[in-house]
Design brief:
single chain, Rossmann fold, nine-stranded mixed beta sheet, two-stranded antiparallel sheet, 5 helices, 11 strands, about 25% helix, ligase, nucleotide-binding
Length: about 230
């Protein structure tokens, strides 16, 4: 019996089907979760996918954070449930205070869509075990509100504790402080990033590479070996 990984759909979510496919390609079972349903259907991990939930009104992720499903996700994440937030999902995680900091509009005030070079900074989270620290990868990026910000104390703490998981290389696409592309919580079970690994799991799509697949194989191995 394989691991079951839930994928939440909010109004305005775009990439839930892509995330489900990536999970399936990795060898796990994707489970669709609806934003109004508090029941996580006994999944072993959760993905909050990309999109424009609730039209990004107020702030990106600000309304989704109060969806019924998030009440359970927050409770279980604090108890150790692995959670991955991709793009809009990362925004939801910051709004839910499962990850520190906030996401603001890109510094150039434009939507950006490109293949983005990243460096793996932390290969010890639940979602990055199949990478190695220092590895350089290419993952598709598409966002309007992708600028990660936090106060200096929080940034220094993230750096000191090794909680910066990914960093932009060659080009900072949105003005994120310290080139931060993704972070993790203290326990390493919650990870958020702006690039879209689910779009880089098969050679025929996305970047033409499979650099995003280790996100999903990492969590599968973590769950199977638990």
């Amino acid at each position: 019996m394989t691991a079951r990984i839930g994928v939440v759909t909010f109004p305005g979510t775009l990439d839930d089907r892509d995330a489900q496919r990536a999970i399936r390609v990795a060898g796990a079972e994707p489970v669709a979760l609806w934003h109004k349903d508090k029941d996580l259907k006994q999944v072993d991990a959760v993905v909050l996918p990309g999109g424009f939930s609730y039209g990004d009104y107020l702030r990106a992720g600000a309304i989704s954070r109060f969806s019924p499903v998030m009440e359970t996700v927050i409770e279980q994440a604090k108890a150790g449930l692995p959670v991955l937030g991709i793009c809009n999902g990362f925004q939801v995680l910051t709004e839910a205070h499962l990850l520190p900091g906030a996401m603001l509009g890109n510094d150039h005030l434009h939507f950006i869509c490109r293949d983005q070079k990243l460096r793996v900074e932390n290969a010890e989270t639940a979602w990055t075990g199949d990478y190695r620290a220092g590895q350089e990868i290419h993952i598709p990026l598409k966002n309007m509100d992708g600028r990660y910000v936090a106060d200096e104390y929080t940034l220094d703490k993230l750096e000191a504790e090794g909680r910066v998981v990914f960093r932009y290389l060659d080009f900072n696409p949105n003005g994120s402080l310290r080139d931060i592309a993704g972070i993790t919580n203290e326990a390493g079970n919650v990870v958020g990033l702006m690039p879209h690994p689910e779009h880089a799991v098969e050679p025929l799509i996305g970047t033409g590479r499979t650099d995003g697949l280790p996100f999903f194989t990492s969590i599968l191995k973590k769950l199977v070996n638990a």
